[in-house]
Amino acid sequence: MSTQLRVIQWATGITGKASLKSILRNPRLELVGVKVYADEKNGCDAGELLSQEPTGVICTQDKKEVIELEADCVIYSPMPWDVEEMCEILASGKHIVTPCPYWFPFTQDKESAERLTEACESGGVNLHASGINPGGIAEMLPLTLTGLCNRIDRITMTEYGDCRDYGSEGVIRDLMNLGRTPEEAENNPVKDMLTSFWNEPIDMIAEGLRSEVVHYSSEHNYILANQSIETASGTIAKGTIALNNYRHIGKTKEGTEIIQEQIWFMDDITQDRLESKMEIPQDSGWRIRIEGDVNLVVDVRLDAPSQPERTQMGISLTGFHCANAVEATCKAKPNGIKTFLDLPLIAGTMGSYSIFD
Fold first, then answer.
1. pTM for the full predicted model
2. What is the CATH number of the domain that holds 168?
3. What average pLDDT does range 195-204 have in this prediction?
4. 240 and 156: one domain?
5. Residue 33 structural domain
6. Strands 95-98 and 126-129: what pairing?
7. Closest by CA position to 315, among listed 162, 180, 157, 209
8. What is the sign, positive or negative, of the torsion defined by CA atoms of 270, 274, 279, 283?
9. Between the N and C ends of the chain, which has fewer C-beta atoms within 10 Å?
């Protein structure tokens, strides 16, 4: 009897293709369906989307057809996402792993958390929001490192991202504000939503420390381009934002500060095409800093010879992590929203053997 879990890939953008690739390679997963949005992908074999051999699984735009498939789990990665659609999938008896929000929604979005929990209970399944940041490096690695510490005064997780080769204009301009004027950034309705997003990993870290956040604050800093910059998502015009720095801070009742920081920029690390410079120790990656009676700094770097390859690696990490989380998500009990605090170690899968099988 096969031990493979049947998986549907829902959306095949940049991140969705990475998780699709990971499903096809993983010997413990079986691809049974692919939901697509673009007309040119409808009717294609899933392998065609990755320039691989045919899989026998045909992509479809028909949501009803996909939901009616016999499957254990859906890797759900559309942008934008739809909480009602997620509830429909969960109620149909399929687990969800997603890079979309709901990493730890219990404080920031109680209404959605309650709806998703009810859908999980109705379908007898789980929801796990995974990915990288938020979704892994932002929470799981800092919390793991705190196990080496005693008094913790501050935890800072900083993401550095050279975004010139990131081809999603919607993400670059609507979420990151790169290429927008300062006035447009200040009036961007997405700003409040992003604050909620970045507070979720702060809340999760506080929960992992057996504490709670009693005060939130945020900072939004940016640097403008001193000339036009050509990128994969279009031209960053002179005088528009070419470096965006978000800082979201939570302070626990014990006084520990938890900081989530993003530095996204549209230049190389020298920043010569920006009006001023910010300290950036690496062009793409993450730095975790823990301060207390033990001070730790851990850098996670993307090791590739070129920036386009580092950009692709960074995107792929999110999709790969989602696929690797499928088995733990499907096995978790009781049913509901499962965060990293609820699941065992999520590791890569190279084979199908276990000494306990």
1. 0.92
2. 3.30.360
3. 93
4. yes
5. 5-130+325-337
6. parallel
7. 162
8. negative
9. N
What is the pLDDT, as a whole number, of residue 242? Answer: 97
Question: What is the residue type of 265?
Answer: F
Q: What digits encode the pLDDT tens for the residues 66-117?
A: 999 999 999 999 988 999 999 999 999 999 999 998 999 999 999 999 999 9
138/203 Cα distance (integer angstroms): 11
Q: Which amino acid, residue 64?
A: K
Q: Is residue 216 part of a domain?
A: yes
pLDDT per residue as tens digits for the range 171-190 = 899 889 999 999 999 999 88
Look at residue 192 in the predicted model and tell me its pLDDT: 82
How distant, in Å, are the alpha carbons of 9, 42, 61, 62, 282 from that of 37?
12, 8, 6, 9, 36
Residues 125 and 149 in one domain: no
pLDDT digits (tens, 9 = 90+) for 241-283: 999 999 999 999 999 999 999 999 999 999 999 999 999 988 7
CATH number at residue 116: 3.40.50.720
Kindly give the pairing relationship between strand 257-265 and strand 241-252. antiparallel
Neighbours of 293 (CB within 10 A): 9
Separation of alpha carbons 33 and 164, rounded Å: 33
Beta bridge partners of 233: none
H helical segments located in the chain: 14-25, 46-49, 63-67, 83-91, 110-123, 140-146, 169, 182-186, 190-208, 307-324, 326-331
Q: Residue 23: phi, psi to the nearest 5?
A: -60, -45
**Gap between the Cα atoms of 58 and 154, Å rounded:** 49
Find where tokens 């939130």 sit.
216
Q: Are strands 213-224 and 241-252 parallel, antiparallel or unpaired?
A: antiparallel
Beta bridge partners of 157: 260, 288
Query: Residue 188's closest CA among 210, 198, 173?
Result: 173
Task: Please report the pLDDT score of residue 1 as a whole number.
Answer: 36
